[in-house]
């Protein structure tokens, strides 16, 4: 990460979640303000923090949360495949509200928590970079493609600086064979978001949120641009995971999105180029 910027006022949405709490700890004391917003309960505000209740589906609440903010880290979402009526308010309306409220309030930069599931139906035999077209593997993945598109629109039309982070598998340690490719450690997550917050001006960038995994199949040119240098590697768990964990599902193993591709799947794998 660059040097802490003690004038920056940063808002994290979804701050009570797994990634949010890791960022709250990891980014403590780096900025003038960390405003922590969620619908779920949170610990009391510490030094340099504000804790606010905010449903991102409620535009008036989002407008209050973004007031006076320089950079937003937008994590709030249903974080996995789910029913459309659950995804719609949080991931679609909520993400639109965050970008639009940010524009109205003159927020300089928005960092959007996208997902590898925005590109999950690309074949795993071919490594991906940030220029590969969207290929969602779920309704959840569609909501992340939507968020990336809104981010691009606000960068081009309103000169907002936007980073979409296609996060892999955020875990204390990799849990299955696929995560030998897709794992991002807590430490690397803090480094990635810290770099996205602190890097000099950019326009619109997409980055894969992964550690320095030996088996990684996603490449991000923009990592150098923001100075993201991951330090962890899932390979340390490879022997255990390859011997103890079952082989992947025959459909999951063919695509970057893995098990999410299999949910409700009644397609024909051979037709997916
Ligand atoms: N964990 C991963 O491996 C992973 C991978 C790819 C992408 N992501 C994305 O990163 C983000 C954070 O993921 P996480 O693992 O911390 O999930 P999480 O479920 O632990 O945290 C999400 C938080 O968002 C909050 N939230 C949900 N709906 C909300 C609403 N309407 N208004 C305000 N807050 C709301 C929840 O209360 C929760 O605290 C999500 O956008 C997720 O899609 C995570």
TrEMBL record:
Pfam families, sorted: Epimerase
NAD-dependent epimerase/dehydratase domain span: 10-168
SUPFAM superfamilies, A to Z: NAD(P)-binding Rossmann-fold domains (SSF51735)
Molecular functions (GO terms): oxidoreductase activity
UniProt keyword annotations, A-Z: NAD, Oxidoreductase
TM region positions: none
Similarity field: Belongs to the NAD(P)-dependent epimerase/dehydratase family.
Protein name stated in the entry: Uronate dehydrogenase
